[in-house]
């Protein structure tokens, strides 16, 4: 129970469903005031108090579990390391993977509980597969796609079939004081929302060049390549516009020489995406198959031809994406699976390319034949 409206209503619904429910709030910082301040639904002292009050109203036991050390090692340190290597991580995925559905679930199972219920907006089908929520604007299946089938089997998402406005109305009816509490949107461990400043305080300042990718001309300087991400347009500090007057975007980041390359938006076009070893939530597939892929939480969905070769996934998009960065997650959906979009697999993006790059022999042959195979 984070202290927000979603987890409070999820807990109340779990009780009504007949489960023996215990509320747990995660203390993720040794000093909560160093994380987000104000009542925003995550990581503050006020949030722990809101969660306790909600548990009292629902009538369930309530505990605070100290996960600060594990959270710092697995989420915050990973965040630093990824940016230092020129990648763009999603800390919410890492938190779900390492904390909420690993450390918490492991402890819960050891204590004799059967599952962890959360306020995430996602559904589990009758086949046990993870599916999008009914409310597309709140769907969180993307950030849950790092779960293993075993973790998913012991997870419950009571809100997946309900639009957010109805959840707030239900909270009011139940007498929960958090009914109108604002949602949390920022990174929970960056108190003021200043990601650049947060990284600079840890990784330091180091002057480097901002270079035109086409001409090699030095256009400006910066004090740390870790402050940039692929596709970034604002905050480049360039005093001279491009010759054609169009805006420039970050195209590449090379931490080794601390250089940032910029260029026009069309240079961000991506048609091919390659991931590292995937996590399969559905029975593992090999070969090529048609699917839909999502590259950001609440981002656009792209039809694609996906090839799985054991070591990773290669997605060839039917329409181009722009500004895709290594470190983000690629999540693969089957849009025709039973009662809604089912998550098949996810993988961390390692590299991207353009449509003019030739397909591998495996991709070409399988794409023509349209065959696919599965193995349990």
TrEMBL record:
Looking at the record, the residues that make up the tRNA-specific 2-thiouridylase MnmA-like central domain are 197-263
Q: Where is the tRNA-specific 2-thiouridylase MnmA-like C-terminal domain?
A: 271-349
Q: Which compartments does it reside in?
A: Cytoplasm
Active site located where? 95 (nucleophile), 188 (cysteine persulfide intermediate)
Q: Where is this site: Interaction with tRNA?
A: 120, 328
Listed under GO biological process in this entry are: tRNA wobble position uridine thiolation
Biased-composition ranges, Polar residues, are 366-376
Q: Name one Pfam family in it.
A: tRNA_Me_trans_M
Q: Report residue spans for region: Interaction with tRNA.
A: 138-140
CDD domains per record? MnmA_TRMU-like
Which region ranges are annotated with the description Disordered? 348-376
InterPro entries (UniProt xref): MnmA-like, MnmA-like_C, MnmA-like_central, MnmA-like_central_sf, Rossmann-like_a/b/a_fold
Name the Gene3D superfamilies for this protein. Adenine nucleotide alpha hydrolases-like domains, HUPs, Translation factors
What is an example of a GO molecular function annotated in this UniProt entry?
A: tRNA binding
> Cellular component GO terms, alphabetically?
cytoplasm
Residues that coordinate or bind ATP: 26, 119
Q: Superkingdom, according to UniProt? A: Bacteria
Family, as annotated: Belongs to the MnmA/TRMU family.
**HAMAP family associated with the record:** tRNA_thiouridyl_MnmA
Functional description taken from the UniProt entry? Catalyzes the 2-thiolation of uridine at the wobble position (U34) of tRNA, leading to the formation of s(2)U34.
**Matches recorded under NCBIfam families:** PRK00143.1, trmU
- What is the name attached to this protein's record? tRNA-specific 2-thiouridylase MnmA
